[in-house]
């Protein structure tokens, strides 16, 4: 294992690795590695010879190499070119990284694979999580795989698919008449009463390390370089923070640009944090030039993963966005369903409501000239559209088999 210690993200306090840890002064911890030793142990070319899984990056993951991970076969998600959608937007190099193809149908598989593996390794047996949906389903699945007891607390309007997957995986599932922060309060107050470990976003240090593999994958898939701009839907922000951490580690390791001629200078991408105008605490803080975000009152959005009115890693997100030269921008709630259909009808990729917000933001930035038409752009699809049946209200035409079919009307149907 190459982990040297854990470190407070707010004040740099160091903690020994190998023991159960949560936050420090109410803020998250970083996992730190002996990168000099990692550099000696593995080269970028070595990964191509390994299994197609996030666990191929074991030197940069916290689980000791001699310990079997808890896995559901989470492989490398594809980067899919989007020529027709790009043409409509006036972009020549538009891609979607489709996390909906991971085992639990969303990017949450990454974080929970790492977090549950570490929880089992550290001897924990009872886990709890507040969730907007996908994280609860993923924890239930990986917890079942590990033989652990799982408690899941969801807002009562969480998509029914998420409720179902958590229930089917054996978790004890509870619906709460509030938002994810209200669920978080229940989990927090139950720690002493029921002895569970809180697996909330960034309240344990290892989900971040699993999400970090998104950044490692992009670099490997692009030949150890990075795109110009990354659009990422941001709720709790673990993925965005994790990718920026991966970019920093790869920079120190000298991996970026290793697959290109030495004359090609590696660049870090601009990060665009996308939120709905119905819940945009990070956007508000970014626009005000603040490092910490205020609670977003009356949060509402059909993109349930973005309905996070307060994030414990707010300053980590805002630091990364600003360091990258990127932006935090709110997309229009009313654009979500039209963008879900537009992207899927042009490219066959079933994007989630959260990613639909990204495309509304992307279209705006292209129009304003802040994103170049020849820039290489990756938009993250963080989950499969099929997990959000409530997001799209259908009113499909019906045909009567006993009457003559009007085929001209069928042809005119949009």
Shape: globular
Instruction: Please give the share of residues in helix.
Output: 25-40%
CATH architecture grouping of the domain at 79-105 and 206-391: 3-Layer(aba) Sandwich
Give the N-terminus to C-terminus distance in angstroms.
57 Å
- CATH C-level class of the domain at 79-105 and 206-391 is Alpha Beta
For the biggest sheet, the summary is: 6 strands, mixed
Uncertain stretches: none
Q: In terms of structural class, how would the helical and strand content be classed?
A: alpha/beta
**H/E topology pattern:** EEEHEHEHEHEHEHEHEHEHHEHHEH
Task: Walk me through what this model shows.
The protein is of the alpha/beta class and 414 residues long. It has a domain at 79-105 and 206-391: Rossmann fold, CATH 3.40.50. It has helices at 35-41, 83-89, 108-121, 134-146, 160-168, 180-194, 207-221, 238-253, 281-288, 314-324, 336-347, 353-367, 407-412, and strands at residues 3-8, 14-15, 29-33, 79-81, 93-98, 126-130, 149-155, 172-176, 197-198, 229-233, 270-276, 327-331, 376-381. Strand 6, helix 4 (134-146) and strand 7 form a beta-alpha-beta unit. Helix 3 (108-121) runs parallel beside helix 4, helix 4 (134-146) runs parallel beside helix 5 and helix 11 (336-347) crosses helix 12 (353-367). The longest helix has 16 residues, at 238-253. The protein starts with a strand and ends with a helix. The model has no long low-confidence stretch (mean pLDDT 95).
């Amino acid at each position: 294992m190459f982990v040297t210690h854990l470190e407070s993200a707010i004040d740099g306090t160091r903690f020994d690795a190998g023991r159960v840890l949560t936050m420090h002064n109410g803020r998250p911890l970083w996992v730190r590695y002996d990168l000099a030793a990692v550099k000696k142990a593995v080269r970028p070319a070595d990964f191509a010879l390994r299994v197609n899984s996030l666990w191929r990056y074991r030197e940069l993951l916290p689980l000791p190499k001699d310990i079997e991970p808890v896995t559901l076969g989470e492989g490398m998600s594809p980067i899919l070119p989007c020529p027709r959608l790009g043409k409509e937007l006036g972009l020549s190099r538009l891609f979607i990284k489709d996390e909906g193809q991971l085992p639990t149908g969303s990017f949450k598989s990454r974080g929970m694979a790492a977090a549950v593996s570490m929880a089992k390794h550290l001897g924990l047996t009872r886990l709890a999580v507040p969730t907007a949906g996908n994280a609860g389903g993923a924890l239930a699945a990986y917890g079942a795989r590990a033989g652990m007891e799982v408690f899941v607390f969801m807002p009562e309007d969480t998509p029914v698919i998420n409720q179902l997957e958590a229930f089917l995986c054996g978790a004890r599932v509870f619906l709460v008449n509030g938002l994810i922060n209200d669920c978080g309060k229940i989990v927090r107050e139950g720690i002493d009463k029921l002895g569970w470990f809180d697996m909330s976003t960034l309240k344990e240090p290892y989900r971040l390390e699993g999400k970090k593999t998104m950044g490692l994958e992009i670099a490997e898939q692009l030949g150890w370089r990075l795109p110009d701009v990354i659009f990422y839907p941001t709720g709790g922000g673990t993925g965005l923070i994790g990718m920026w951490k991966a970019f920093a580690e790869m920079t120190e390791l000298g991996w970026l640009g290793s697959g290109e001629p030495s004359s090609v200078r590696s660049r870090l991408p601009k990060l665009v944090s996308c939120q709905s105008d119905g819940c945009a605490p990070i956007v508000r803080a970014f626009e005000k030039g603040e490092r910490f975000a205020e609670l977003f009152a009356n949060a509402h959005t059909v993109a349930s993963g973005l309905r996070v009115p307060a994030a414990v890693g707010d300053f980590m997100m805002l630091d990364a966005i600003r360091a990258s030269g990127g932006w935090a921008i709110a997309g229009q709630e009313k654009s979500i369903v039209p963008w879900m259909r537009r992207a899927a009808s042009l490219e066959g990729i079933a994007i989630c409501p959260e990613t639909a917000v990204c495309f509304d933001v992307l279209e705006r930035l292209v129009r304003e000239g802040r994103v170049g038409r020849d820039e290489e752009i990756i938009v993250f699809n963080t989950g499969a559209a099929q997990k959000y049946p409530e997001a799209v209200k259908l009113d499909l035409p019906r045909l009567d088999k006993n009457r003559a079919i009007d085929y001209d009307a069928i042809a005119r149907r949009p």
